[in-house]
Amino acid sequence: MPDLHDGSTECDPFPETALPTDELAAVLADRLAEVPEWRSAKDPVRLGFAMSEPHPLALHAAGMFAARNPNNVGVHTRFGDGVRGTRRLEREAVLALGGLMRADSADGYLTSGANEGTLAGLRVGRNALRAAGCRRVLVIASALTHHSVAKAAEILDLGFKALPAKPSWVLEPAALEEAFDALEADGEDTGVIVVSTAGYYNTGLTDPVDRISALLGRRTDAPSRLRFFHHVDAAHGGMILPFTAPDIPFDFRNRFVHSMVLDPHKSGLMPYSCGVFLCRKGLLGHGAISAPMSGFVDETVTGSRSGATAAALWSLVFGLAAEGYRETFRGCLDLRGRLGDVILAADPDAVLLPSPGNTVLVVGFSTEGGHLPGALREHYRLVGNALPWTDAQGRVTDRLFHHFYVMPHMTVSHVDGFGADLAAALAAPVGPEGRPAPVTEAERATTEPPVPAELKHLRGTSACLRHLVVHPPQRRDPDDYPHAYSFHTFRNRAELGEQLRVETWPPSTDTEAQGGGELLVYAPDFDAPFANELFGVLSPRKFSLEVLDRNQQKLSLVGAAHLSVFEDADERPHTPVLLANFHGDGGFRSAEYKWGDRWHADELQVFEDSLVVKVGKDARSIRRTGDDYSFSIDTSLELRVTLTDGDAPPRLERVAQHTDPALPRRRHLLRGQYQRFPNRFFDVIVSLTVGRGFTGTVGTDDLLAEALQGGPLLARSADLGLARVLPRFAEGRLVTGLEEVRGEGSYEMSVDLGLGARLRRELEGIDVTEPENLEPRDVVAWAERLHPVARRLQLAAVDRDGVRHPHWPTGASGGKASAVRGSTA
Ligand SMILES: *Cc1c(COP(=O)(O)O)cnc(C)c1O
Asked: Per the record, which residues fall in region Disordered (predicted)?
C-alpha cells in the first residue's frame, strides 16, 4: 500500500510467477466478503441508490454464453444484420425495447450504460445538426440533469447550457422557449440538442416530454435559424414507467424525440454493464465510420462488446416480459407506500414527494435543516440534495431533500428496519454527531473563531507539512482508523473551532532566540500538553518548534518534532523557509529548504543518507464541510540522490516519467476529489546513487543523456516556470541548475554531499519518544538552543547571485554546545 505510506501511488511490477490456486482463492474470497450482499442483515441497506440484485435468469444466460466469448461489435438492428447467435439475441432484445418505447422503427445497441448511451445520442445529434447546416451546436438541459449530459457535451466539444432548476424540478417548456428566443436573436444558424429526463436521479420525476416535443415541432415548422435534436435520458425511468404508468408520455410516441437511453443495469434487473441506446431508424448513419480492416461500418461509440450481456438482456426481455416487470415494479410501489408510512410515523411533519410511476420517494425531513444523523445516513446510504422549494410564505429557497429508491431486492423488513432506526434516531437527544446544522459559507465566515492573534505569524497553511490527523470521530485513534487522515494545519484547526490555546512564556533568559521579543507556547490542551496532538513553542515572525504526541508521531511524514524557521522568508523570496525535523529519539532526520511562497516552492531536502531536490512542489489543502479537510501535493520533478559510504561515482538508477511537464497540468484535484488523503503527484522522478566522498565532476549529459535519449529534463519550477533541470556533481556537491526554457531566468540549488551527516552530528534534539514525560520548559530550552544554529543555516542558504547553497556555515557554533539531550526531570 504505497499510497498509505507516502501518498504516492506507483505501479507494481507485473507478477512473474502465478499465485498458488489456494492463495488465489483465498484472496478472492476475502475481497468477495468485502462486497456487500443485498439481503444480509449486517450489510448496509442501499436505500439512497438506484441499484439492485440482478435477476437469476440474466446471470444464468450471461454465464452460459461467457465461455464462448462472443463479440457483438457493431449494430445489429438493420436489415440483414443480427441473424445468428448473440447478435440475434441483441437485435431481438433491442427491437423489443424499441417497441416498449413506442417506436415504430428504431436502431440501437447495447452500451456500457447511460453515460455511453447519452454520448452516442449527442454525437448523432451533433452530426445530424451539422449536416443540416448548423455551424454552432449546443446542448440545453435542466440543471438537475445527470452529469453524464455535461460530460458528453464536453467530450463532443459542444456548449452546455443548464437551465436553472425551478420548484417544479422539471424542464419547463416556457424556460426552453426563452432560451430559444435568446439564441434566435443571435442570428446564427444554431443546432440545439435538448436533453429531457425520464426519472431524474435525485427526484424520480419525468420532464413533460410531450410538451417539449410539441414546442420543438412548433419552432421547427416556423421560419427559424434553429434546428433541434431531442434526446431523452430514460436511464432511471425507462425500464419502470412503461410498466407502472404507461400514460406518462416520455418516449418515441412524441414526434420530436430522436434518441433515448435506457439503463437495464440500473432498473432493469441486469448485472453491470448494460445500457441501451435507441434512436429513430436512419439516424445512426450520422455516427458511421468505416472500419476497413474489419470490413464493416461502425456506428457505435464502443468497439468490441460482450455478446453474453446481450444474451442476459434477451433472457429478461423474453423470460420476464412485461408481466414480470410489471409485477416487480408494482411491488416496489407498494413497498414505497409502506416506506412513506414508516417515515411519517417517525417524523409526522416530513414532506413526502413520491414520484409518479417511479419507485423514488423524496423526503424533506422536519429536522433542523432537514439533516439526518450521520450513522443513519451511512447505514442506509442516504444522499441529500438541496433543491429549490416554495416555502409556506411562498418564497423560493433551497431545501434539503433525501431521496429513497425502493428497488426490487427490498423487503418489508428493510423498510420496517429503517422506520425503527429513523424513529430511534429522531427521538434521541442531539449528540455531537447528531443532526449537524447546515453551515453556509456566509455563516461560516461569521461564526468561525478567529485564529488567535498571537498565532497570526505562524504559517497559516502548510509550508510545513506538520503532521497528519485522523478524521473525526476517531481523530485521536489512528490504530483504529488508519485510512482516514489528512494533514492538519493551524488555520484549519482554528477554522474547525479547535482553537489552540496560547500562553506567553515567562521571559527567563535574554536569549538570541527570543531576541527581546516574546516567546509563546501553544497546545490544544495545556493540562496534557504532550498527550494531545502537539505542543509548540513560537517566537512570532521567527520560528516555531513543535513536538507531536504519540499518535501524531506515528502518522507524521516529517518526524516526531520539527523546527520551522520562517524569519524573512515572507518578505524576501530568496530567503528559504527552513525546517529541521527530528526523530522521536532526538536524532536529526532532515532539513528542508523551501524557496518560493508557502504553497509553491522549489526545495532541497537534506537527510543523512540522501538528498532530495523538489522542483515546483505545489501543495494545496482544502476544507470541505465542517471537519472534513485534506491535502494534496503535486511536484513537477523530484530528484532523489541516495548517498552511500565511500567515494563511488554517481550512477543513474531510474528515470520515471509520469507526465509531460511541458503540458499545463490541472491545478491539483477538483474539490470533490480531496476527501482521500494523501495524494501526491509527480511529473518526473529521477533517482541517483553517489558516494558521500565523491569529489569528481560529472556533468548532466554524462548522468542523464542516455536515459533521456538526448532530450532535456524539464520541470515546472516555482520560480521560473517551465525550466530545464541540469543536475551535476562537482567538488563534493550536488548542483542542480534550473534554466527557464523561454527566457533568461536561471539559478542553481547546490548542496554539500556531506551536509546531512554533519547535521546529524551537530544538530541534536531531545528524546520525545515518551512525550507525556516531557515538561514544557525542556522543549522551550531546546527551541532556544536550536534556533540560533538553524537561523545561521537558513541565512547561509540565502540566494546569492543565483546560487542557493545549503551548507554548514562557517562560524556556526558547534551544535553539541548548543543543543541538549532531553531531560525528563
Ligand atoms: C444513473 C443515471 C445515469 C448514468 O448511468 P450509467 O449507467 O452510470 O452510465 C444517467 N442519467 C440518469 C438519469 C441516471 O439515473
From this structure: 803-825
Which atom from ligand 1 is nearest to the alpha carbon of 236? Answer: 15
Nearest to 805 by CA among 734, 766, 723, 749: 749
Ligand 1 binding pocket mutation candidate from 201, 277, 407 (most atoms within 8 A of CB)? 201
Q: Cβ(94)–Cβ(278) under 8 Å?
A: yes
**Within this chain, do residues 149 and 248 fall inside the same structural domain, yes or no?**
yes
For ligand 1, say whether the CB of 197 is within 6 Å of any of its atoms. Answer: yes
User: For 101-149, how does the pLDDT look when each residue is reduced to its tens digit (9 = 90+)?
Assistant: 999 999 999 999 999 999 999 999 999 999 999 999 999 999 999 999 9
Q: Please tell me if the CB atom of residue 146 comes closer than 6 angstroms to any atom of ligand 1.
A: yes
Q: Is residue 57 packed enough to be buried (19+ CB in 10 Å), middle (13-18) or exposed (0-12)?
A: middle
Our answer on whether the CB atom of 207 is closer than 6 Å to any ligand 1 atom is no
Cell numbers for 123: 454525437
How many CB atoms within 10 Å of residue 657?
A: 15
Confidence of residue 818 (pLDDT cuts 50, 70, 90): very low
Mean pLDDT for the stretch of residues 43-68: 95
- The total of structural domains in the chain comes to 2
Strands 679-691 and 714-717: unpaired
Query: Ligand 1 atom closest to Cα of 273?
Result: 7
Q: From the CA of 74, how far away is ligand 1's center (Å)?
A: 22
Q: Which atom of ligand 1 is nearest to the CA of 201?
A: 15
Q: What atom in ligand 1 is closest to the CA of residue 116?
A: 9
- Of the chain, the percentage scoring pLDDT greater than 90 comes to 66
Domain end (from 304, 319, 334): 319
Q: Are residues 393 and 343 both part of a single domain?
A: yes
- pLDDT (tens digit per residue) in 422-466: 999 998 755 444 444 444 444 444 444 445 666 655 544 433 444
Would residue 35 count as lying in a domain? no
Is 275 touching ligand 1 by the criterion CB < 6 Å? yes
Does the CB atom of residue 268 touch ligand 1 within 6 A? no
Closest CA relative to residue 232, chosen from 163, 322, 160, 141:
141
Q: Is the CB of 115 under 6 A from ligand 1?
A: yes
With cell 540566494, the residue in question is: 799
Report the Cα–Cα distance between both ends of the chain, in Å, rounded. Answer: 41
pLDDT tens column, 307-363: 999 999 999 999 999 999 999 999 999 999 999 999 999 999 999 999 999 999 999
Question: Which domain CATH number covers 358?
Answer: 3.90.1150.10
Let me know: does 306 contact 72? Beta carbons within 8 Å.
yes
Quote the ligand 1 centre to 113 CA distance (angstroms). 7
Q: Residue 448: its pLDDT value, please?
A: 42
Same domain, 100 and 219: yes
Which amino acid appears at position 77 of this protein? T
291 CB-near residues (< 8 Å, 6+ apart) = 297, 298
Cα gap 135→248, rounded to integer Å: 35
pTM of the model: 0.78
Taking only the tens place, the pLDDT of each residue in 720-751 is 999 999 999 999 999 999 999 988 899 999 99
Same-domain status, 181 and 244 = yes
CA 640 to ligand 1 center in whole angstroms:
45
